[in-house]
Every structure is written in C-alpha cells, then in structure tokens.
C-alpha cells in the first residue's frame, strides 16, 4: 500500500472516530425510567416468519436459475450447477426478481431478532436456526459467499449488544481471553473453509484446482483491497459517471431502476502480486466516487456520530438502539471489502428489526419508576 493511500484511509478513520466522540458526548440521552417486569416472546409467529422467508428465497433461487432438487442431491450435480450459475452471474447476470430481495429482507429481519433475543436471555431450539441454514444453502448454490458471512455478522453483533444491554456490561472485549481467542480461531477457520468450498464450487468438477491455487486466489479478497485502493487512487482521473451515492447504496438504486448493479462491484481490475488481478477496493473508493473526497469525509463523520449516539443509547438501556449500532458496526467491519449498505436487504432488516422486536416480544411494562443506575432490561 502506498503512502498516499495509507494517508487517505487514515484520514477517513480518524474522521469517523472524531464523529463518534462528538455523537457520544454532544447528544443527551436520558436513561429509560420504566422497568420491564415481563418480556414474553411470540416464538411461534417468529419461527413462521423465518421458515416462510427462507423457503421462499430458496424456491425463487431455484426457479430463477433453472435448478431442480434432483441436481442438488449429488456432489457432482451441485458442482456442475454451481459452475454454470457462476459463469452466468459474472456474464449475463442472474436477474433475481424483487421478490427475492423481499424474502431476504424478511429472513435477515428474523436473524437479527433471533440474535438479539438470544442476547436478552431467551432460549431457542435447534430448529430455530434452520431458516438461516436454508438461506446459506441458497447462497452456496449461486456461489455467493458474502451474504453468508454478512448474515452471520448480523446475528453475532445483535446477540452481543442484546446481551450487553440486558447485563449493562459494555467493557471492551479482552482479546487475550482464552474463550475469545478460541472463538476467533474457529470463526476464522470457518470463513476460510467457506471460501475454499465456494471457490471450489466455482471452479467446478471438470476444472478442479489444487488447494494451493484456490488459497492463492482467495487471499486477494481479504488482503488485496488496500493495495487495490492505492493503485486506483494513483491512476484515478477524477471522472465519475455513476449517480450520486451509487456505490454506497447500490441495491437501492438498482431496485429503483436508477442504475443497474455492476457485476462484482467494480468492472475495473488492477494487477496485484504474482499475476493476480483484483477488483475489491474497500468502501473508500465508492465513498470518494459517490460524494467526493470532502463528502466522503462528511459521510464518515456522520456515520461515526450516529454510532456514538447509538452506543450511548444502549448504555442508557435503550434496547432499540441495538439495530442502528449493529448496522454501523457491520458497515465498519466489512469496510475493507465493500459497502455493507450496498445490499437492500441489509438496510431493510435494520429498519424492520426494531419493529419486528416490538411485535414478537410482547412487553408488560411496570409503571414503577427506577433509578437510572439500576441494571434493568428496558425498551
């Protein structure tokens, strides 16, 4: 990564940090004064939402790609259809209908409610997680790994912040804790395994590669984005032909018919080491092209400010702030790859998440006033 690229990324990160500080200390949020004495979860209706949305999304995927269940019953059949779909996805495009986005939005809404209720202390049977597995399987068929990882992030952070709110514990995570290290190692191994499996499916049975070649291809996804951004910045002419906000909110503009989504995010590639080409440029290329350099800085500041407000709200017992904070954390976590808000279903689930939680979590609120410092779960 060049010095100029590193400086630009650093400026945006510092601006985001400054915004979060201003948001936290400048916006007053009083603790919730009413105590939740009974919190009942409508599990049956919640699970129906999960299964209906997951099955609908899978059926739409199979119908759009012309895939039958019989083809999925054997490894060779799965690899054959996956390779065929991959070629179509990167050439003509799959053309998944709007109903597919609706189904995914509802499924991710289910996922975020599932995660936060776990954090609040509710227990779910194993089959409550089946809708998420169905969603993952549908994405494996079309060899899209990002939705799988992103959905796991949504569930994980919703769980973490729900648990933090109900226990009133917001201490920084101790990375050297044995449990945390084990979780990170297993999570990293799971992501690596997913990448290897999906990439193998993309190559297909007839074009099988050895493990070294697959891993060499995959390393540019997490590690090549910063060098790619630097190379793009050095050669960028300053010309922009896309609509305002296109790369940051691609899904919305695509669904509204304003601008079609570019396959793979960017159709321009840069040469990385060992002859590898990459088209992953971090979110910062998109922000600069969408809003200009100054506008990108303003966006980062406002994003940080919203994060600071949401974090303060959670510390004050405002449960519904978990959705906003989860959205911002997920955006920042995957900033080295792509805009988390470029998927319509992500934005929809963070908007629908608090509304769904209010519906599926039947609340009985006591009129008893409680002191701000009491450790209570509030909404």
Describe the structure in your own words.
With 379 residues, the chain is mainly alpha-helical. The chain has helices at 3-26, 43-65, 75-89, 98-119, 130-141, 146-167, 178-203, 211-218, 220-223, 225-235, 250-255, 282-315, 321-333, 344-360; strands at residues 34-41, 270-271, 277-278, 361-369. The protein is built from 14 helices and 4 strands. The strands form 2 sheets. The protein has a two-stranded antiparallel sheet with strand order 1-4. A hairpin with a 5-residue loop joins β2 (270-271) and β3 (277-278). The model is unreliable at 365-379 (pLDDT under 50).
Q: What is the compact description of this entry?
A:
About 65% of the residues lie in helices and about 5% in strands. It has helices spanning about 5-25, 45-65, 75-90, 100-120, 130-140, 145-165, 180-205, 210-220, 220-225, 225-235, 250-255, 280-315, 320-335, 345-360; strands spanning about 35-40, 270, 275-280, 360-370.
């Amino acid at each position: 990564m060049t010095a100029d690229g590193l400086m630009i990324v650093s400026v945006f990160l510092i601006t985001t940090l400054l915004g979060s500080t201003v948001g936290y200390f400048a916006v007053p949020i009083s603790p919730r004064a009413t105590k939740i004495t009974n919190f009942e979860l409508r599990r049956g209706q919640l699970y129906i939402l999960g299964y209906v949305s997951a099955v609908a999304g899978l059926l739409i995927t199979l119908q759009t790609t012309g895939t039958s269940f019989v083809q999925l019953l054997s490894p060779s059949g799965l690899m054959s259809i996956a390779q065929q779909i991959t070629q179509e996805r990167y050439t003509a495009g799959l053309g998944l209908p709007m109903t597919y986005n609706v189904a995914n939005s509802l499924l991710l809404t289910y996922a975020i409610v599932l995660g936060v209720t776990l954090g609040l202390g509710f227990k779910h049977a194993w089959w409550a997680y089946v809708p998420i597995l169905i969603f993952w399987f549908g994405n494996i068929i079309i060899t899209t790994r990002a939705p799988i990882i992103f959905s796991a992030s949504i569930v994980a952070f919703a769980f973490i912040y729900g648990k933090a709110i109900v226990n009133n514990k917001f201490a920084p995570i101790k990375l050297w804790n044995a449990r945390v290290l084990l979780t990170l190692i297993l999570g990293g191994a799971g992501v690596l395994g997913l990448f290897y499996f999906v990439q193998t499916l993309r190559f297909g049975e007839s074009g099988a590669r050895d493990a070294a070649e697959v891993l060499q291809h995959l390393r540019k996804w997490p590690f090549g984005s910063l060098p790619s951004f630097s190379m793009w910045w050095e050669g960028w002419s300053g010309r922009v032909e896309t609509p305002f906000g296109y790369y940051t909110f691609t899904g919305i503009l695509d669904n509204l018919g304003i601008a079609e989504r570019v396959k793979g995010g960017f159709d321009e590639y840069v040469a990385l080491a060992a002859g590898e080409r990459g088209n992953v440029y971090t979110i910062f290329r998109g922000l600069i092209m969408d809003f200009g350099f100054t506008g990108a800085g303003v966006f980062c500041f406002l994003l940080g400010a919203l994060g600071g407000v949401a974090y303060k709200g959670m510390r004050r017992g405002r449960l519904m702030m978990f959705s906003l904070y989860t959205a911002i954390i997920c955006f920042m976590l995957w900033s080295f790859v792509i805009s988390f808000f470029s998927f319509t279903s992500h934005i929809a689930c963070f908007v629908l998440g608090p509304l769904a939680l209010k519906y599926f979590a039947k609340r009985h609120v006591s009129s008893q006033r409680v002191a701000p410092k009491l450790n209570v779960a509030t909404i």
